[in-house]
Recover the amino acids of this structure.
């Protein structure tokens, strides 16, 4: 495979390491030419469409700010280029529909990088619960982000470019895991607020979501923690309480040993799943399988987040 990369920032660098390890990185695009300096041995571009048309890659990885995802996905799929995009899928309901139509029309494989599904503890619990009745799931994200973090890139903390705050950026991966276990809720009732970053961002830094369904869930997220804490899932079955944190599963108070420790690529909060997900994506291409985390699957967490933003403390029904 000849794979191009657009977005050479923090998360793009993680994709680049894996693609270079696979020997497949053929071109890199970013509007910041300084970020392209370390890829001097490759064709580099500041224009995404030009890169697609001149390099004609087999696949492309999209690691750009949120507001660019939909347009870039559609451009690639319309050219029959296999496309793997970082989260979130996009930032509006209209964009979800555009991406779904583009994916349906294209012969290329499409996927979204929700890599925490590939972390060992989450794979273990997904398999463990497959024949059990889940009563409820709680997800918690308590991280620290300050004004300097949001000032580090002009698209951060703005509704038009990030699409929201803690929910659509930091907490989406954990919310995706909740929905992976519970399925989409019937209704979402939520409250979002800015408790610690009023002078730095125009979006929320804290949120609570209650999803009603069978099973239902409760989800808490904040960027106002004094320090980054481990994300946590708590699953209640008829007779068990299961707690899942990075690298750990505890069932009714008993710790489960299920794998060796891992080293995360990039930030520790990214987990260890990127390489496994990317390898699976290319295995799907090679073997003619549809990648499991496509447009419909990745849209589920975005739809819940958009419903949370629209809720204002009142139930919002999901289609």
């Amino acid at each position: 495979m000849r794979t191009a990369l657009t977005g050479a920032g923090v998360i793009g660098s993680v994709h680049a390491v894996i693609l270079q390890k696979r020997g497949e990185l053929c071109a890199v695009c970013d509007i910041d030419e300084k970020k392209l300096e370390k890829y001097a041995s490759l064709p580099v571009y500041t224009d995404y469409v030009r890169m697609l048309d001149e390099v004609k890659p087999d696949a492309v990885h999209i690691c750009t700010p949120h507001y660019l995802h939909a347009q870039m996905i559609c451009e690639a799929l319309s050219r029959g280029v296999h496309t793997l995009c970082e989260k979130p899928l996009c930032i509006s309901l209209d964009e979800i529909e555009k991406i779904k139509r583009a994916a349906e029309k294209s012969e290329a494989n499409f996927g979204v990088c929700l890599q925490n599904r590939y972390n060992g503890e989450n794979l273990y619990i997904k398999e463990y619960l497959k024949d059990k009745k889940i009563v409820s799931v709680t997800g918690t994200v308590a991280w620290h982000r300050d004004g300097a973090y949001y000032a580090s890139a002009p698209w951060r903390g703005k509704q038009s470019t990030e699409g929201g705050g803690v929910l659509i950026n930091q907490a989406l991966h954990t919310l995706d895991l909740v929905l992976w276990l519970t399925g989409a809720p019937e209704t979402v009732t939520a409250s979002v607020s800015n408790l610690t970053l009023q002078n730095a961002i125009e979006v929320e830094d804290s949120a609570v979501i209650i999803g009603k369904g069978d099973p239902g869930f409760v989800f808490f997220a904040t960027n106002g923690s004094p320090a980054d804490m481990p994300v946590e899932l708590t699953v209640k079955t008829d007779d068990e309480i299961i707690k899942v944190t990075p690298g750990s599963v505890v069932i009714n108070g008993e710790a489960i040993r299920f794998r060796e420790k891992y080293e995360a690529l990039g930030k520790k909060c990214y987990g260890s799943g990127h390489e496994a997900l990317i390898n699976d994506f290319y295995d799907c291409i090679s073997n003619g399988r549809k990648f499991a985390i496509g447009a419909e699957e990745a849209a589920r967490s975005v739809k819940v987040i958009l419903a949370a933003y629209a809720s204002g403390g009142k139930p919002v029904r999901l289609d």
Q: What stands out?
A: The chain has two domains: 3-115, 118-269+294-317. The two ends are 38 Å apart (CA to CA). Residues 3-115 form a domain with the Rossmann fold fold (CATH 3.40.50.720).
